[in-house]
């Protein structure tokens, strides 16, 4: 497949955004960089737009020219160049996950997730995953094929959770609507185990869970779920929302500012993390 027809990898996008930002911070045009490094403007454009990822050597040459990049950021950007062409685990489940969301999630350094009606996917137990997945219509009417599709969907979502146990797992902050804990997905026993899993997760150092109680009333999160993602060292930030029509990525500064205002507005009506842990514990001991 020609490079122009390939879907950019998340690592390639991060690298391209970072190189663009550094160049623009130095007030350099692509033409000026090309003349200094004896590169064509097209080569720089392809690299910055993740059409053709640059080599590690090219990244080092560009960073030498730009100057002012810390040792840590330089090492991370060079590593991104080495890894830019690699496809992640989600490539094996491209028929399950539409679009590139798992790749963004897997590469993020920070995740801020708001879910009003369901337990966030990264925190779902296997029984909860199966119950939610089985409730979705199957694309096949053949029982055997439908069962196979279900199992692959469940496996994909469980594989996704490997992120939680990774040494370099991102910082994760979840705002979860009380409705997600009241809806008996899979029945009372499944929900009890799910709430127990949430309580366990809330005690992990990189995970913060806060419950948005019914008593919060009307708030700015009533429009639906969303995820905010930060990427270091690429200095890239995106927001993601999803509906029946598919996923939508928001990247403009104005859209991101609006989404973070929404996040802060929901955070203001959520229980504190300590009160949220107490809330979950009370649910586990409730008859």
Mean pLDDT: 89
Strand content: 5-15%
End-to-end separation: 59 Å
Radius of gyration from the alpha-carbon trace, in angstroms: 22 Å
If strands are numbered along the chain, what order do they take across the biggest sheet?
Answer: 3-2-1-4-5-6
Query: How many distinct beta strands?
Result: 6
Q: What global shape is seen? A: globular
Helix fraction bin: 40-55%
The largest pleated sheet is described as: 6 strands, mixed
How would you spell out the order of helices and strands? HHHHHHEHHEHHEEEEHH
Number of helices: 12
Oligomer: single chain
Can you tag this structure with a few keywords?
single chain; 287 residues; alpha/beta; six-stranded mixed β-sheet; 6 strands; 49% helix; globular; disordered N terminus
Describe this entry's structure for a reader.
With 287 residues, this protein is an alpha/beta fold. Helix content is 49%, strand content 13%. The chain is built from twelve helices and six strands. Strands 3-2-1-4-5-6 form a six-stranded mixed beta sheet, sandwiched between helices. A hairpin with a 4-residue loop joins strand 4 and strand 5. The longest helix is centred in the middle third of the chain and has 18 residues. The protein is globular, with a radius of gyration of 22 Å. The protein starts with 9 loop residues before the first helix and ends with a helix. The relative contact order is 0.12.
Q: What's the topology here?
A:
Blueprint: H1 10-25, H2 30-37, H3 41-48, H4 56-66, H5 71-83, H6 101-107, E1 110-115, H7 126-135, H8 143-160, E2 171-177, H9 178-182, H10 188-202, E3 207-212, E4 226-231, E5 236-243, E6 246-250, H11 253-269, H12 273-285
Parallel strand pairs: 1-2, 2-3
Antiparallel strand pairs: 1-4, 4-5, 5-6
Helix pairs in contact: 1-5, 2-3, 4-5, 7-8, 10-12
């Amino acid at each position: 497949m020609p490079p122009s027809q390939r879907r950019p990898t998340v690592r390639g996008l991060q690298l391209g955004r970072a190189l663009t930002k550094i160049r623009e911070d130095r007030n350099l045009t692509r033409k000026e960089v090309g003349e200094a490094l004896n590169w064509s403007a097209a080569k720089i454009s392809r690299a910055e737009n993740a059409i053709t990822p640059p080599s590690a050597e090219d990244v080092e040459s560009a960073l030498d020219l730009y100057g002012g990049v810390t040792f840590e950021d330089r090492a991370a950007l060079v590593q991104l160049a080495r890894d830019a062409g690699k496809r992640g685990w989600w490539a094996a489940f491209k028929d399950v996950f539409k679009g590139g969301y798992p790749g963004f999630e897997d590469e993020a350094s920070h995740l801020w997730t708001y879910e009003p009606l369901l337990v966030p996917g990264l925190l779902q137990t296997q029984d909860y995953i199966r119950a939610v997945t089985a409730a979705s219509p199957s694309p096949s009417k053949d029982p055997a094929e439908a069962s196979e599709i279900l199992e692959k969907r469940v496996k994909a979502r469980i594989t996704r959770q490997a992120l939680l146990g990774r040494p370099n797992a991102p910082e994760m902050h979840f705002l979860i609507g009380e409705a997600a804990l009241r809806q008996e997905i899979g029945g009372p026993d499944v929900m009890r185990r799910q709430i127990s899993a949430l309580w366990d997760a809330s005690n992990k150092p990189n995970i913060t869970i806060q419950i948005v109680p019914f008593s919060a009333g009307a708030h700015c999160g009533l429009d639906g779920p969303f995820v905010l993602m930060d990427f270091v060292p690429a200095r890239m930030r995106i927001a993601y929302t999803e509906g029946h029509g598919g996923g939508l990525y928001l990247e403009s500064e104005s859209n991101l500012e609006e989404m973070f205002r929404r996040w802060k507005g929901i955070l203001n009506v959520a229980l504190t993390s300590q009160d949220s842990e107490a809330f979950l514990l009370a649910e586990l001991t409730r008859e």
